[in-house]
Design brief:
The chain is of the alpha/beta class and 236 residues long. The protein is 47% helix and 16% strand.
Length: 236
C-alpha cells in the first residue's frame, strides 16, 4: 500500500505564500513605507559612502521603489517616507553615545542635505499638495520608525493593517522597523528587491523576516496585486 506523501511541495508552499501575501495587500488597508532613502545613506558624497566608506547599498533598490511608489499613488495607497534625523538634539543619550563612536564627521542624517530624500525618489512639492495625508514624511530619531514617532497613530488613523516596507539598510533600519510593525499589530511585507545592504546581510535579514516577522516578495508581485495587468505593464 502506497501512502500519499504528507509533505507539501516547494511549489505548493510558494503558491500558498503568494496567495497569503495577496490577501494582505488590499489597497484600502495597506501603506507603503520607504525607509532612509536619503543622501547621507545613498549618495556618493553622503556620510556613509564618503566618510565611512560604505559600499553603495541603495542603487539596486531605487527602481523597484520608484515603481511601487507610482503604483501606490495610482490606487490611492498611502506612501510614508521615513527619514532618519540623528542630530544630537533629537536622539536619546544612549543612541547618541553609539553614534559618537563614528566620530562627528561620520554621523549621518544631521545636515539638511544629508537628511533629504535622494533626487531619484524625492517627491515634488506638488505631490504632497495633491495627495494630502496620503503622502507624508515622518522623521525618526532611531533605527526604528515606530520609536518616538507618530507612525503608529498615522497608520491607525488610516485604518492600515499591512505595511509594505522598502529602503535601507535591510539589516538595520528596515529590520528594526519590521520587528516593531509586527509587535504594534501590523502585517508586514518586505520587498526583497526594494531593500539594500551588504548582500549577505540582506539574505540573512530577509530569512529572519520570512521565518519570524512577516512576508518577503518582489516589487512585481506587489504591483500585480495593486494594479490591473494593463496598468501594471505601464509601471514596470
Amino acid at each position: 500500500l502506497l501512502l500519499a506523501p504528507t509533505f507539501v511541495s516547494a511549489i505548493d508552499q510558494i503558491e500558498a505564500r503568494n496567495m497569503a501575501i495577496h490577501d494582505l495587500l488590499e489597497s484600502n488597508t495597506t501603506a507603503l513605507l520607504v525607509v532612509d532613502m536619503q543622501n547621507d545613506f545613498c549618495h556618493e558624497s553622503g556620510v556613509n559612502r564618503a566618510v565611512m566608506k560604505w559600499p553603495d547599498v541603495c542603487s539596486t533598490a531605487v527602481q523597484p521603489i520608484a515603481s511601487l511608489v507610482e503604483s501606490a499613488r495610482q490606487v490611492d495607497i498611502p506612501v510614508i517616507w521615513i527619514n532618519a534625523d540623528y542630530h544630537p538634539d533629537n536622539v536619546n543619550s544612549a543612541f547618541d553615545a553609539k553614534l559618537r563612536q563614528r566620530g562627528e564627521a561620520g554621523r549621518p542624517a544631521v545636515s539638511e542635505w544629508g537628511k533629504a530624500i535622494i533626487d531619484e525618489l524625492n517627491p515634488a512639492s506638488s505631490v504632497f499638495e495633491e495627495r494630502g495625508t496620503n503622502e507624508i514624511v515622518i522623521s525618526k530619531p532611531s533605527f526604528d520608525a515606530f520609536t518616538d514617532t507618530p507612525l503608529k497613530e498615522e497608520l491607525q488613523r488610516r485604518n492600515i493593517e499591512t505595511v509594505v516596507v522598502t529602503g535601507v539598510a535591510t539589516s538595520i533600519c528596515v529590520e528594526s522597523t519590521v520587528r516593531s510593525a509586527l509587535f504594534e499589530g501590523f502585517h508586514v511585507v518586505v520587498v526583497k528587491d526594494g531593500v539594500g545592504d551588504l548582500p549577505e546581510r540582506t539574505v540573512s535579514s530577509l530569512d529572519r523576516v520570512q521565518l519570524l516577522f512577516g512576508h518577503v516578495t518582489s516589487a512585481l508581485n506587489i504591483i500585480g496585486s495593486w494594479l490591473p495587468p494593463a496598468a501594471e505593464k505601464l509601471i514596470i
